[in-house]
Fold this sequence. Notes:
alpha+beta
Amino acid sequence: MSQSLPAFTAPGRFWRGNLHTHSTRSDGILEPEEVCRRYRAEGYDFLALTDHFIGRYGYPIVDTLPFRTNSFTTIPGAELHSGAMANGELWHILAVGLPPDFAPSHSPDFLPVDGQESGAALAARAVAAGAFVAVAHPQWSGMTLDDARGITAAHAVEIYNHGCAEGCDRADGFGIADLLLTEGRRLSLIATDDAHFSEPDHFGGWVMVKAAANEPEALLGALKAGHFYSSQGPDLRDVRITGDAVEVDCSAVRSVIVQGAGSAAKAVHGQSMTTARVPLERFRASPWVRVTVIDHAGRRAWSNPWFL
């Protein structure tokens, strides 16, 4: 019996989008219209503009409706900040699909202040308002596992942040995400740009979302359901469990890796592989598995986790 991940059986087609982007409405260097134009010109289907939701910038949720076209859509959002992590720094919480009247937290700047709403409460409020919520750049933030455990409302963890890769070589979120998955958290995994256009922080990581239409509500529903994968370049065409193995169909790659809890991992390597079969023997004790593929340029694509 063969069963595919829902992203590959859901109705519709895949749409390419970036979920983490900044403009001159906060600390980016391009106007919102120009940011949208560049992503549209690069072949993206959708974009979420997520400027920093703090008092210094007037708590922006930027109206990007005027920048939509017949083939390019936008989703309003923001990068939310409130409360302090264990290291004393503010939370960074990505919220895509916020209503324009979402109430600000008391976050006048990038430093915590007394009496602030906690990060956990802010994330829960964003989810209640209809947003798709992700814990942003865990490695860049210096986040601990206990920090991450506290954000119980989040849908996802940002596992690759291209801006953090280019700006400080701290792009990774898998260390936190894999531990949360092993503890039973049902989370999806997103790759993003976190583009400010002040360095080469754009067009390096994205999500491929399976939805019936390139429209905000359809895309948000698919994101919340986990009907997507993340990529730096390679395409995933199917990820399925057949008997005692994970089978992967993809664009040409040199490595297909299945990861699970703890040290559970198994890789298959070759030349220009478009299919691979990875035995599940090493994953008998793991509650979940996920897939990474790597092409000859070193670019990766990542599936969402599959709970066994």
